[in-house]
Amino acid sequence: MLQKKSSTFPAGILGGLFAAVLATAIMSFFLVFPPLALLLGCFMTLPIFIVAFGWGTTASIVSLITATIVLVFAQNLYIGLGFALLFFLPAVYGSWLLGLAETDKEGHTVQWYPLSSVIFLLTGFISIICVIIGTILHNNPTTPIIAGEVANFVANSLRETNSASEADIITFHDFLVTNIVPLLSSSLATYGVLFLIGNLYFSLVGAQRMKRLARPRDDWPKKFRLPIPALVIFIVAFGATFFELGTFLNLCASVFNTTFTLAISMTGLAYLHNLTRGMSGRIFILGFVYIALFTFVFTLPVSLILLLMGIWTTIQESRQRGETKQ
């Protein structure tokens, strides 16, 4: 990546401040106006990525440290470390991976690290982070108390709106209390994968337009693929969710199943973008898919179709690579 040593630290500090401001805004709007919080989440790690692409890995580490320190003092220790682990650290890791390249004896770039491998490693990295967070929550003595308060709040809300029978409310209450850690970990994993990859895409576009990107821009519809080990991890994790393997292994299965289901589905979406290129009705097809993903009735079938397309294109990509090597 491009780098100017004289401005590494100022750029890193500035990027960290911007990231901290966005994270603070997300926390402020999360309960007041959730849609705005979700929208801001699309750009939360954008400053760190831009700094990494423009001024190098050292500057992105400075941004990570700056943003974490600001959040610790502005919010609290747990929020600061949570944002650092779940968002800022994966952003630094992902930008570092995208900066890796093979060079010849004269120092000229020969081949950049593949986007497919970057997405795969980032997905695994976020999964591990969420498992660590889940393990910490499970061993925290205050977690059952907080889980009970959250479950009581949800149960009382259901009673006030008469949304379910008393027996169903009690069952749902007990389910929340018992499974709060895997549910929360999977939710964090979902948010982490979706918004980190979204931030990654927009930051690459922004860095290129700012002429701060040394890496050639990848054609995401063609290059957003996953290696076959991702499919293996998905199958193992999905199968493990049907068995009682103990608290830790069940947590791992839940998180890895969530993250790799999302990653493979996003691969299917990228394949659909590539497949519809040149079609006259491309806008209507993609528009329907995106609208359907946010519509309760069509979310499940469309998500399942994208997942199957992602599985198919992962297998096809693996076969093509094997034929190329032969």
Q: How would you explain this protein's 3D organization?
A:
This protein is mainly alpha-helical. It has a domain of 225 residues. The chain is built from 13 helices and two strands; from the N terminus they run αααααββαααααααα. A two-stranded antiparallel ribbon has the order 1-2. The longest helix has 44 residues. The radius of gyration is 21 Å and the shape is globular.
Q: How many angstroms separate the termini?
A: 33 Å
Largest sheet: 2 strands, antiparallel
| Secondary-structure element string | HHHHHEEHHHHHHHH
Instruction: Give the radius of gyration.
Output: 21 Å
How many strand units?
2
Overall average residue pLDDT: 85
Class of secondary structure makeup: mainly alpha
Strand percent estimate: under 5%
Q: Tell me the strand order in the biggest sheet.
A: 1-2
**Which spans have pLDDT < 50 for at least 5 consecutive residues?**
none
Number of helices: 13
Helix content: over 70%
General shape: globular
